[in-house]
Amino acid sequence: MALSLDDKTAFVKDWTHQHGATRDKLLPLLHAVQHEAGHVDDALIPTIAQALNLSRADVHGVISFYHDFRRTAPARHVVKLCRAESCQARGGALIEAAAESRLGTRMGEARGDGHVALEPVYCLGLCAVGPNALVDGRPIARIDAAKLEWIAEEIAA
Amino acid sequence: MTRVYISRDMASVALGADELAATFRQAGCEVVRTGSRGLFSIEPLAEVEVDGVRIGYGPIAPGDVPAVLAGDHANRLGEVAALPFFAGQQRFTFARCGVTDPLSLADYAAHDGWRGLDAARAMAPQAVVDAVKASGLRGRGGAGFPTGIKWQTVLEAAGPTKFIVCNADEGDSGTFADRMLMEGDPFCLIEGMAIAAHAVGAGHGYIYIRSEYPFAIATMQEAIALSAQRVAPFTLEVRVGAGAYVCGEETALLDSIEGKRGQVRAKPPLPALSGLFGRPTVINNVLSLAAVPFILDAGAEAYAAVGFGRSRGTMPVQIAGNVKHGGLYEIGFGVTLGELVNGIGGGTASGKPVRAVQVGGPLGAYIPPSQFDLPFDYEAFAAAGALIGHAGITVFDEDADMARLARFAMEFCAVESCGKCTPCRIGSTRGIEILDRIIDARDGQAVKNAQERASGYLGKALNSRAPDRIDADIASQTALLHDLADTMKYGSLCALGGFTPYPVLSALDHFPEDFGAVQVAEELA
Fold it and tell me: What pTM value is reported for the model?
């Protein structure tokens, strides 16, 4: 994960060479950078702007608009817990409180040791089987106390 | 070798379908992964083929596999399609979902696939548009605008370059039909888009899928590659969203594809005339486009024969939240809300009485059981101050705190606002503050000093006015909430700010006791 800025710069150049350098490629490029490097480094903004012939402000504006794009390195494990209405109707608020205390971090924050982050997500489309979460990208449904414990042990391992 | 059918739908996998499939494989079975049948109370579900008939077992866990293969497991359901939940449906759009392997071209062709596209390509573009008009199909994304009229506008628009855009940014809580279709029958959506392309003269299409749907993204990308030859010269690509709910609004979605912040555009110009990259663009919801193959294959009359009033055809209704038998139920318009929630859904999962249902996602109204005779119909819902939206129904039991849900609606609007118009950007934050005051007053707490209420920018915003100058009693705050709701409803640029008053005011109107109204009445007496 620990790519150097030079690596990332080379990645951006390769990617645009391969997929094109028009403005509409900005989101796919940002997704690709984040997939490759874990987050979109602010230091990379000038490279991206130059590659797509945009202003740095333009690129910054897009990165900061979308919830998905991270500007700092993520925690090693990410638990995205749904906060939307259907999960609330199935006891989501209690699970959220339990997850905060079991994982030792507050909603929307990473734990101090950088091991796990608890992030909100608004609907995974599994609304009949909530409360739901994506644990490192893996969907988990019908979360109760036992499943929360299982999640905590999975990411502790 | 015994053949077993197990869903690969994201909901099924979240419930353990992958582990189940692996166990059946280890037991020497041939496992076929399908989409989901759409009833989640019986998942994880396995269907074992015996003499050409698929016998369902569910819910089951990997440990149940020997008993299932012996045919004597207690959760034997018999033929899944014959269960009451499925027998009462009219599956026009979801006919194949849960039945076929979603990425098998052979399965698709064997189950009436491509017949709509072949029929359309034998017709003149105008005749295709006329068929869609005659079917009465209305936009399934929520607005209910007649699809045929939208296509007519694009057909008549001048210009050699036109686009088909599929809105698969299904962000509403309580809805999952788009996701299920993309994962369970992706070729159906591709066929619908290819028909649209033929009808209006477009060469390229985009499917904009939200990033929260990784399974749908992967399935659609694979399906596009597999069917490229079949739909040529029409070409397609998937674009992945980045966690912005507002990109489900069509003009924000177009800006997002163009690589910009997903901010809403002022209309006019209509996207049909000046849409993606300024070109004439058909932008439709997944369910609208996926309904089209049936219409071209079975005929517009067959589709229009089902329905209620001006709402023709079927609606894949999604029953979700605190409900016993949640899932996808495709049926003609006109079914009542009560039949869906209590009859088909079987009431709440918790066993407590239903307090309210929210129809149409975070921007839809809360409806009390006293209105459960409301028929599923665009006009009937509008007349009752509600909206069908994307036909998701979220059920709440009596533990629901309607004032907190109203506050959540404002909070969601504040989090997701694109920031372009003031009523939505600022109004939602003011709405949170008003509802906090109402909840505090209801719970008997004095108005908290702004500084102790919350740190961060919300707290600072509240602190910008002297707290003792805020008239914090419930009656005046409620009046203020009505005022604010009016401003948002009539002053916002799009449905995010414009429809957030629906859940807020419907909760207030139908459940005034949660907003402290009883205490007010007592105090006055």
Answer: 0.95
Fold type of domain A77-156: Glutaredoxin (3.40.30)
Domain chopping of chain A, boundaries: 5-65, 77-156
pLDDT, tens digit, 9 for 90 and up, residues B396-433: 999 999 999 999 999 999 999 999 999 999 999 999 99
Q: Is the ipTM of this complex over 0.85?
A: yes
**CB contacts, 8 Å: A32 with chain B:** none
Count H helices, E strands: chain B? 25, 16
Residues 59-78 of A with CB under 8 A from B: 61-62, 65-69
| The amino acid at B490 | Y
User: Which residues in A lie closer than 8 A to residue B416 (C-beta atoms)?
Assistant: 122
Q: State the pLDDT at residue B449.
A: 46
Q: With an 8 Å Cβ cutoff, is A150 touching chain B?
A: no
B159-205 residue pLDDT tens: 999 999 999 999 999 999 999 999 999 999 999 999 999 999 999 99
Cα torsion for B14, B189, B282, B140, to the nearest 10°?
-60
DSSP-derived secondary structure letter, B17: H
Identical topology for domains A5-65 and A77-156: no
Contacts of A62 in chain B (CB under 8 A): 259-261
- Which residues 79-138 on chain B approach chain A with CB closer than 8 angstroms? none
Instruction: Write the burial class of residue B346 (CB in 10 Å: 0-12 exposed, 13-18 middle, 19+ buried).
Output: middle
Please tell me the total number of residues recorded for chain B in this structure: 525
Which residues of chain A register pLDDT less than 50?
A: none
Q: Who's near B346: CB < 8 A, 6+ residues apart?
A: B323, B324, B325
Q: Which among A26, A123, A142 is the nearest to B212, CB-wise?
A: A123
Q: Which amino acid is at B520?
A: V
**A26 interfacial to chain B (CB closer than 8 Å):** yes
Residues in A touching B257 (Cβ below 8 Å): 24, 27
The vertex-B120 CA angle with B119 and B122, nearest 5°, equals 70
Q: Name the nearest CA neighbour of B457 among B435, B479, B426.
A: B426
Structural domains of chain B, ranges and CATH numbers in brackets: 3-83 (3.40.30.10), 105-304 (3.40.50.11540), 315-397 (3.10.20.600), 402-524 (1.20.1440.230)
Helix (H) or strand (E) run with residue B508 in it: helix B501-510
Q: Which residue of B has its CA nearest to A90?
A: B322
Assess if CATH 1.10.10 describes domain A5-65. Answer: yes
pLDDT score, position B518:
63
The shortest C-alpha distance from B433 to chain A (Å) reads: 20
